Amino acid sequence: MATIGESAKYVRSKGAGPFWMTIDIFCDGPEKFELFQDSPVICPKTFSDIFQVPEDTVKIFFLSQLQVIKISVPRIPPQGHPGERDMHCGQQYIRILDLPLA
Q1: I need a surface site. Which of 22, 27, 51, 94 has the fewest CB within 10 A?
Q2: What torsion, rounded to 10 degrees, do the Cα atoms 89, 7, 57, 50 define?
Q3: What is the pLDDT of residues 19-45, one digit of tens each?
Protein backbone atom coordinates (compact mmCIF):
# COMPACT_ATOMS: atom_id res chain seq x y z
CA MET A 1 0.00 0.00 0.00
CA ALA A 2 1.38 3.41 -1.02
CA THR A 3 2.12 5.92 1.71
CA ILE A 4 1.95 9.70 1.65
CA GLY A 5 5.75 9.88 1.57
CA GLU A 6 5.97 7.49 -1.40
CA SER A 7 3.14 9.10 -3.38
CA ALA A 8 3.86 12.80 -2.92
CA LYS A 9 6.38 14.71 -4.98
CA TYR A 10 7.32 16.75 -1.92
CA VAL A 11 5.97 17.23 1.62
CA ARG A 12 6.87 20.09 3.94
CA SER A 13 5.67 21.70 7.13
CA LYS A 14 6.13 25.25 8.36
CA GLY A 15 4.88 27.67 10.92
CA ALA A 16 1.98 29.86 9.85
CA GLY A 17 2.29 32.41 12.61
CA PRO A 18 2.61 31.72 16.32
CA PHE A 19 -0.66 29.79 16.59
CA TRP A 20 -0.87 27.70 13.38
CA MET A 21 1.19 25.13 11.48
CA THR A 22 0.73 24.21 7.83
CA ILE A 23 1.64 21.00 6.03
CA ASP A 24 1.89 21.13 2.24
CA ILE A 25 1.67 18.01 0.09
CA PHE A 26 2.83 18.62 -3.48
CA CYS A 27 1.57 16.16 -6.09
CA ASP A 28 3.28 15.16 -9.32
CA GLY A 29 0.41 15.44 -11.78
CA PRO A 30 -3.39 15.38 -11.71
CA GLU A 31 -3.59 11.61 -11.15
CA LYS A 32 -1.60 11.83 -7.93
CA PHE A 33 -3.63 14.84 -6.81
CA GLU A 34 -6.85 12.85 -7.29
CA LEU A 35 -5.33 9.95 -5.35
CA PHE A 36 -4.80 12.25 -2.37
CA GLN A 37 -8.12 14.02 -2.81
CA ASP A 38 -10.01 10.70 -2.79
CA SER A 39 -8.06 9.18 0.10
CA PRO A 40 -10.02 8.67 3.32
CA VAL A 41 -6.80 9.38 5.24
CA ILE A 42 -6.75 13.03 4.18
CA CYS A 43 -9.42 14.15 6.63
CA PRO A 44 -9.62 16.27 9.80
CA LYS A 45 -9.84 13.20 12.08
CA THR A 46 -6.47 11.87 10.92
CA PHE A 47 -4.64 15.12 11.60
CA SER A 48 -6.55 15.73 14.81
CA ASP A 49 -5.32 12.39 16.13
CA ILE A 50 -1.72 12.87 15.00
CA PHE A 51 -1.28 16.42 16.27
CA GLN A 52 -3.58 16.12 19.31
CA VAL A 53 -5.82 19.06 18.40
CA PRO A 54 -9.63 19.32 18.24
CA GLU A 55 -10.97 17.86 15.00
CA ASP A 56 -13.06 20.95 14.22
CA THR A 57 -9.91 23.12 14.18
CA VAL A 58 -8.18 21.19 11.36
CA LYS A 59 -8.45 22.90 7.97
CA ILE A 60 -7.79 21.08 4.69
CA PHE A 61 -7.55 22.84 1.33
CA PHE A 62 -7.32 21.03 -2.02
CA LEU A 63 -5.70 23.42 -4.49
CA SER A 64 -6.26 21.68 -7.83
CA GLN A 65 -4.63 24.34 -9.99
CA LEU A 66 -1.41 23.95 -8.02
CA GLN A 67 -1.88 20.22 -7.35
CA VAL A 68 -1.23 20.87 -3.68
CA ILE A 69 -3.04 19.84 -0.51
CA LYS A 70 -2.63 22.27 2.37
CA ILE A 71 -3.44 21.15 5.91
CA SER A 72 -3.49 23.68 8.74
CA VAL A 73 -3.61 22.74 12.42
CA PRO A 74 -3.28 24.82 15.58
CA ARG A 75 0.15 24.92 17.18
CA ILE A 76 -0.04 23.49 20.67
CA PRO A 77 1.87 24.88 22.43
CA PRO A 78 2.18 28.15 20.49
CA GLN A 79 5.48 29.35 19.07
CA GLY A 80 7.90 30.50 21.75
CA HIS A 81 6.28 28.53 24.58
CA PRO A 82 8.87 27.04 26.99
CA GLY A 83 7.69 23.51 26.09
CA GLU A 84 7.95 23.97 22.34
CA ARG A 85 10.56 21.86 20.52
CA ASP A 86 10.24 22.93 16.87
CA MET A 87 10.04 26.72 16.60
CA HIS A 88 9.60 26.76 12.81
CA CYS A 89 7.52 23.52 12.54
CA GLY A 90 9.99 22.35 9.89
CA GLN A 91 10.11 18.77 11.20
CA GLN A 92 6.41 18.09 11.79
CA TYR A 93 5.67 16.71 8.32
CA ILE A 94 7.65 13.57 9.20
CA ARG A 95 4.72 12.36 11.32
CA ILE A 96 2.52 11.84 8.24
CA LEU A 97 4.95 10.32 5.72
CA ASP A 98 4.20 6.69 6.62
CA LEU A 99 0.40 7.02 6.55
CA PRO A 100 -1.16 4.72 3.93
CA LEU A 101 -3.33 6.52 1.38
CA ALA A 102 -6.09 3.91 1.25
Answers
A1: 94
A2: -70
A3: 999 999 999 999 999 999 999 999 999
Model-level pTM? 0.92
63-69 long-range contacts (CB < 8 A, ≥24 apart) are: 64/30, 64/33, 64/37, 67/26, 67/27, 67/28, 67/29, 67/30, 67/32, 67/33, 68/24, 68/25, 68/26, 68/27, 69/24, 69/25, 69/27, 69/33, 69/36, 69/37, 69/42
Per domain, the residue ranges of the chain are 4-96
- 87 C-beta neighbours (distance < 10 Å), count: 11
